[in-house]
Design goal:
With 265 residues, the chain is of the alpha/beta class. It folds into two domains: 2-42, no CATH class; 62-254, Glycoside hydrolase/deacetylase (TIM Barrel, Alpha-Beta Barrel), CATH 3.20.20.370. It contains ten helices and eight strands. The strands form two sheets. Strands 1, 2, 3, 6, 7 and 8 form a six-stranded parallel sheet that branches. A two-stranded parallel sheet has the order 4-5. Helix 1 packs antiparallel against helix 2 (23-42) and helix 8 packs parallel to helix 9 (229-242).
Length: 265
């Protein structure tokens, strides 16, 4: 649909230039194209730029906890302690640069049975608009850092800031990575979001198969705020238990072993 709309708009533009199509029609077509692009960038469920994993099967009482932007020397160990306290497992989408800086944390997460996945190397807000060739290198750097730290080769990629684009989809395919989104995010990475607000958002999505998004670090190393994920977990994990749900890794949620054959369907 996205490619088709490009051809339609291009044809309308030519028609407008030679006087065979009203200028208003061209404006409408451009507005449609911009709207379609924005949907593809920010709304994973449209599937405009590629299939994105948003949830798992609903036939088992499990959810997948996922964390972005780490590891962090202070917050990640606290998150790990809370997870261990409640017997929960999670998937960490780590930044390659931070994996290089804190390889011992990546190794510790792996040793404790948690899953490590790719969240790009540098986590730039402009990542979605890089060339596909640049993104291929970006994902390669992150994967090398993750594997060098002792984790298994990633099979999932979550785009920085949740922004998708055709180059990102192409780069992920090149690496055999499944694009991973979420069912609900805590927005705990936003300034001003409280523990109560984050818990409230996630609690509305506590159902079998859900993929929940939190942050065990801030994307910028100079950020002086303290991540609230450990406090959110202390409230959220008892809620899961009350509803008969367990927190597992993505691989466990999907009931499939890690491997390049997994396509996120």
């Amino acid at each position: 649909m996205y490619v088709l709309s490009l051809f339609v708009c291009a044809g309308t533009g030519v028609g407008c230039a030679v006087g065979k199509v009203a200028p208003g029609a061209f404006v409408v077509c451009v507005a449609w194209q911009l709207g379609l692009t924005l949907l593809g960038n920010f709304v994973f469920s449209t599937g405009i730029f590629g299939k994105v994993l948003l949830s798992g099967p609903q036939d088992k009482p499990v959810v997948a906890l996922t964390f972005d932007d780490g590891p962090d020397e202070v917050t990640t160990p606290r998150v790990l302690e809370v997870l261990e306290k409640h017997g929960a497992k999670a998937t960490f989408f780590v930044m390659g640069q931070k994996a290089e800086q804190c390889p011992q944390l990546v190794a510790r997460l792996t040793a404790c049975g948690h899953q490590i996945e790719n969240h790009s190397h540098r986590h730039s807000w402009g990542t979605a608009f890089f060339r596909a060739s640049t993104l291929v290198r970006e994902l390669s750097q992150a994967t090398r850092a993750i594997v060098s730290a002792g984790a298994k080769t990633p099979h999932y990629f979550r785009p920085p800031a949740g922004i998708l684009s055709p180059p990102i989809a192409a780069a992920a395919r090149t690496h055999g990575l499944t694009l991973c989104g979420w069912s609900k995010k805590a927005r705990d990475g936003w300034k001003g979001v409280t523990v109560e607000q984050a818990v409230g958002r996630l609690s509305s999505a506590l159902r079998p198969g859900a993929i929940l998004l939190l942050h065990d670090a801030w994307e910028r190393p100079d950020e002086r705020r303290t991540p609230i994920a450990p406090l959110v977990l202390e409230r959220l994990l008892p809620m899961l238990a009350e509803r008969g749900l367990s927190a597992v890794t993505l691989h466990e949620l999907l009931d499939r072993g890690p491997g390049p054959e997994h396509d996120g369907s």
